[in-house]
Specification:
Oligomer: single chain
Shape: rod-shaped
Distance between the termini: 85 Å
Mean pLDDT: 77
Radius of gyration: 30 Å
Length: about 110
């Protein structure tokens, strides 16, 4: 007698597994989609970053590349003497907002 391995054996159906409910993934919040009024400078920076990323194919630029974009927009770090000179000329912000230099220092640049 030969055994036919191709012959299908009839077996009982496997018990149904209990499936866990699918969890919704948390969506990342894109700050550019928040309902907020951006200043002209913020919009200019976001557009410059977007242009840089598209031209260079870099979706996640390094800190050095971000600084390159910032410098390309004309931002510079002033020495204490340079800040004093601007203050003497009356070009310091009078609305209580931080200057660009103070913002850079607060951000760790």
């Amino acid at each position: 007698m030969t055994i036919d391995r191709r012959r299908e054996e009839v077996s009982a159906p496997a018990p149904a597994l209990e499936r866990r409910a699918k969890v919704q993934r948390r969506r990342q919040i894109d700050p550019t989609t928040c309902e907020r009024d951006y200043s002209v400078e913020e919009v200019e920076f976001m557009n410059a970053m977007d242009d840089y990323k598209r031209k260079n194919g870099r979706m996640f630029p390094t800190c050095s590349e971000v600084l390159e974009v910032i410098r390309g927009l004309g931002y510079v770090r002033l020495s204490p003497a340079g800040r004093a000179m601007l203050a003497a000329e009356g070009e310091v912000l009078g609305d209580g907002a931080m200057s660009q230099e103070e913002e850079f220092e607060a951000a760790g640049f």
